[in-house]
Amino acid sequence: MRIRDRSKCRSYSATYRAKNLAKVRAANRRYAATCKDKRRITKLMMRYGLRPDQYDAMAKAQSYLCAICNKSLKLYVDHHKASGVVRGLLCRDCNLGLGYFKESPDALSCAAKYLAERHEMPLHEAQTRKREPNQLAFWSGEPVKE
Predict the structure, then answer these.
(1) Global confidence as pTM
(2) Is 80 exposed, middle or buried (CB count within 10 Å of its CB: 0-12, 13-18, 19+)?
């Protein structure tokens, strides 16, 4: 049994791609166009253990809207990162927002409280103060004229 040197295979592959870039890109576009559904099915099963009919049933149950903001956008699967349990379907912004808050209900409630308290708050004096011309020159990189 012959064992191939994988580093040679990788270097040949990289060289071939560099020489035949247009051909490789055209083949990738053809594959992507013909296998879009297959890729979706594989992704749902591998990442979340969902069949497409289960995903479609979840989307229909949510009226094809994000479970948080109720906007009609592309829906992404929201799952608990530690256990992998699927919780629902969210838009990209809501799904990323949960991730940024580390899925912590405490952090999210603190953020909601912060926004509620400061919703109608006036701007700070520093934000409304007019800049002096010499300050503008400093920030633009020009020499300050005195």
Answers:
(1) 0.61
(2) exposed
Nearest alpha carbon to residue 88 among 106, 98, 75: 75
Q: Which residues pair with 88 in a beta bridge?
A: 78
Q: How many beta carbons lie within 10 A of that of residue 75, not counting itself?
A: 22
**DSSP for 41-70, written as a single string:** HHHIIIII---HHHHHHHHHHTTTS-TTT-
40-72 pLDDT, tens digit per residue, is 888 899 999 999 999 999 999 999 999 999 998
**Angle made by CA atoms 25, 28, 29, in degrees to the nearest 5:** 90
| The two three-digit tokens of residue 98, written as one number | 């949960």
Answer yes or no: are the C-beta atoms of 76 and 90 closer than 8 Å: yes
